[in-house]
Specification:
mainly alpha; 125 residues; 0% strand; RNA_Proc_DNA_Dmg_Regulator; elongated; Splicing factor SF3a60 binding domain-containing protein
């Protein structure tokens, strides 16, 4: 249901959150070797996700199929209000068809990472 521009925005947000999580992870004091090893594993996972988001963004910006260019043209064309209302109708229709669909915000996942860092006695992932 997401448009290409919304996907790009989401990937940029995720990359920023990943960098923030990596920074917090590296600055957090580790008192034992076990905490250091677990921290290194978390950093590797965060780095892998960052690289995955980056490669996906690169593919979206290359716009091989021309969909991004079409979407930008539709939003900036002479009928931008008609385009806006047609997209709004599509969103309302989607939510009418799927009323119980749950979307977990990205911030929840990163809050769980922060909790895992603050409570090293509990196992993560």
């Amino acid at each position: 249901m997401e448009t290409l521009l919304e996907q790009q925005r989401r990937y940029h947000e995720e990359r920023e959150r990943l960098i923030d999580a990596q920074t917090k992870e590296m600055l957090h004091k580790k008192s034992t070797n076990r905490e250091q090893i677990n921290s290194d594993h978390r950093l590797k996972i965060l780095l892998d996700r960052y690289m995955e988001c980056t490669s996906t963004l690169k593919e979206l910006y290359e716009d091989r199929d021309g969909l991004r260019k079409e979407e930008i043209a539709a939003l900036s064309g002479p009928n931008e209000f008609a385009e806006f209302y047609s997209r709004l109708r599509a969103i309302k229709e989607f939510h009418r068809k799927h009323p119980n669909e749950i979307q977990v915000p990205m911030s929840v996942e990163f809050d769980e990472l922060n909790k895992a860092r603050e409570n090293p006695s509990e196992e993560m992932m």
